[in-house]
Amino acid sequence: MLAHRTLSFVAAGLLAGYAAGAQTPAAAPPAATLSGQELLLGTLVGLIVLLLLVLVLTGTAIVVKMKPQLRQLYDLPTVHDTWSGQVLGLLVGDARLVRGEYRDELLDHDYDGIHEFDNDLPPWWKWGFAFTVVFAIGYVGYYHVMRTGQLQGAEYAAEMQQAALFVPVGGDDPNQVTTYAALTAPTDLSSGKSIFATNCAPCHGANAEGKVGPNLTDEFWLHGGNVNNVYKTIKFGVNGKGMVAWKGKLSGKQMLQVASYALSLQGSKPANPKAPQGEKEAAGKPVAKL
């Protein structure tokens, strides 16, 4: 069966890739750490895709194997002209259901030697036209009658206003103070956690307990504990202290996400914390809404 052969090739490729990865002496670390829910979701999606692939291949193999019998069934007068028969025709190579039926009947129109045939429009064209009519009614009702959605001008203005929050005046000036609020949405904190695990954990520890860099879970800060101070430290770094500048490597939103995640760890009390450094400060108070 075609499906069995394809699955054999897929399995062989997966085994070969696994063996090659096992023989690699030093594999590069993953770009981001996936949570258990993300791994479960990815596994389920992969299984569903694999199941659909098996069904498609199995169905194709069955149709190819039974094409002569399907053709005989399609040629029956009681089946050929029905809608289900036209669907069956797609399986045996007759695209009449999609392209329509050409009658090739000449009309009386004759202009400069050009004759006109009386053929219907292809069904796919008529279905597409009906879809555009339904879509236009829904669009007008949603945007212009109920005014539920934003029109292009309002949507553009809202996006520009939001983008302006990440591009303050003098955005490359280390002395320019931003007015961000700490992000609290679970998706933002999850993204910040992934960025922290990949880029910050080697110096600050997996739980921000501090290693080469300072402990980020206590109330003491070297360069300010407000979300905007932390954002500034991440963006511009600290010369001579080992803290690199992440501007150009992370986007403005990514830097705000990791800053917000770091502040969410306040008081988490990880194991083996590094001794406090800097001055005590109440951190994480929002100063503006995004």
Overall description:
There is one protein chain. This protein starts with a helix and ends in a 10-residue tail after the last strand. It has 11 helices and 4 strands, in the order ααααααββαααβααβ. Mean pLDDT is 79; it is low at 14-31 and 283-290. With 290 residues, the protein is mostly helical. The protein is 54% helix and 5% strand. Helix 1 (2-23) runs antiparallel to helix 2. Among the domains are: 42-99, no CATH class; 108-145; 186-280, Orthogonal Bundle (Cytochrome Bc1 Complex, Chain D, domain 2), CATH 1.10.760.
Concise synopsis of the structure shown:
It is built from eleven helices and four strands.
SS summary, helix count: 11
Radius of gyration: 32 Å
Number of strands: 4
The main sheet orders its strands as: 1-2
Structural class category: mainly alpha
Q: What global shape is seen?
A: elongated
Elements, N to C (H/E): HHHHHHEEHHHEHHE
The CATH superfamily title of the domain at 186-280: Cytochrome c-like domain
Approximate helicity band: 40-55%
Mean of the pLDDT scores? 79
Main sheet? 2 strands, antiparallel
**Through-space gap between termini:** 57 Å
Low-pLDDT regions = 14-31, 283-290
User: Which CATH architecture of the domain at 186-280 is right?
Assistant: Orthogonal Bundle
